Amino acid sequence: MTQRIYWVPHTVCPYDCLHCHNDSVPRGVRTPRSTIDRIIAQLPDSDSAYRLEDVLVGGGEGLVRGAGIEYLVRAFRERFPRGSQATIEERRAAGHVILSIQTAGPPLADRDGNASAARIDYWMDLGVDYIQVASSDMFHRSRHPDYAWDTLEASLTAFGEERGIEFLIYGKEVNRLVPSGRVLENLDALQDQGARLLTGERYCADGWETGSRFLSGLAHDYPQCSEVVIDTEGWVHPCCWYLLSPGLFDLTVVDFETGMRSLQANPLCLAIDCGDILAVADIAGQPPDWASQVRDAVGDCGICRLASVRLASQPGYAWMRVPPLSAAERAFYARLLGQSLFEQTVP
Fold it and tell me: Residue 86's CB: how many other CB atoms inside 10 A?
């Protein structure tokens, strides 16, 4: 039984992508070192039922120097040493925690787009097991003005094969935008490029970055094990889109195992675990026709965000961390839902 974590310790990023759901910027939020230390101390031990299997550090640009990532990696490896086995599979089988970092790619390359051995070795020597390169898509390719993306992808692939270093290269599908961050203000421009909001049925139940199985996945081995997100303040969320999903407990205050066990019988958490976002709406007191209309317009993620805001105003769910709708969100939802449907949403 194992646990995966996606940790977002900062929202610092130089690329200013129109689709960024975290609204990452060059001067983004950074988690203080004291909070990083507290989070690491609260993570489960190897003998816990929530034994860590994989931790992915993202952002923001995960490899921004000076954003505290070097400190995080060193501190993490002090508690969870990297295994000496030759391959990731062998380290995982031996019970070692696999640590990866997510990047848009340029910090791994020289100005011509060729893999930089010095830059890559720097991060591997710190204790990173492998690097996830989230750039093979229409959104990030334009962030490489001095060279073609294919140049970097080919160079990283060849470098990895030669040196035995794994690069997981992937990209966002154009129809998987969520109503958060800069998407709120740039949706029209993104749609002109062929992008679309994620509005398909059963997305939360079937998508790999969703909240489904964040509780019940504890009974499964990698890669179907439980996965949660830690945000910049140390709150634990059930899915990758942490700006849209509620914060469930503060990891700087409650240790991970205690926090996760406290959620096991909560109706909202059980509904998210099943990916049943219509049930989430029902728990928030919204009728089925409201949920269906909202899903068609802004998807499961929109329902989760709006229902969470409504729930957080109720005494029984005041423990959740759910920021009120921002001015940008209010304008976005009012435009896409229509004023009448939106007025049924706000508490």
Answer: 9
Amino acid residing at 180: S
Tell me if 219 is assigned to some domain: no
Residue 262's CB: how many other CB atoms inside 10 A? Answer: 14
Nearest Cα residue to 123 out of 79, 156, 172: 156
Average pLDDT for the chain: 92
**What total number of domains does the chain contain?**
2
Task: Identify whether 241 is part of a domain.
Answer: no
Q: State how beta strands 167-170 and 226-230 pair.
A: unpaired
The span from the CA of 327 to the CA of 17, in Å, is 21
Comparing CA positions, the residue from 344, 328, 347, 297 lying closest to residue 21 is 328
Per-residue model confidence as pLDDT tens digits over 56-66: 999 889 898 77
pLDDT band at 17 (very low <50, low <70, confident <90, very high): confident
pLDDT in tens, 193-228: 899 999 988 899 988 789 999 999 988 877 778 999
Is 214 a member of any domain? Answer: no
pLDDT in tens, 274-286: 999 999 999 999 9
Average pLDDT rounded to a whole number, residues 285-305:
95
The range of the structural domain enclosing residue 328 comes to: 276-343
User: In the listed set 156, 180, 199, which residue is the last one of a domain according to the structure?
Assistant: 199
Which is nearest to 20 in space by CA: 164, 144, 181, 211?
A: 181
CB within 8 A of 122, min separation 6: which ones? Answer: none
Phi-psi region of 97 (alpha: psi -120 to 50; beta: other; left: phi over 0): beta
Q: Is 172 found in the same domain as 59?
A: yes
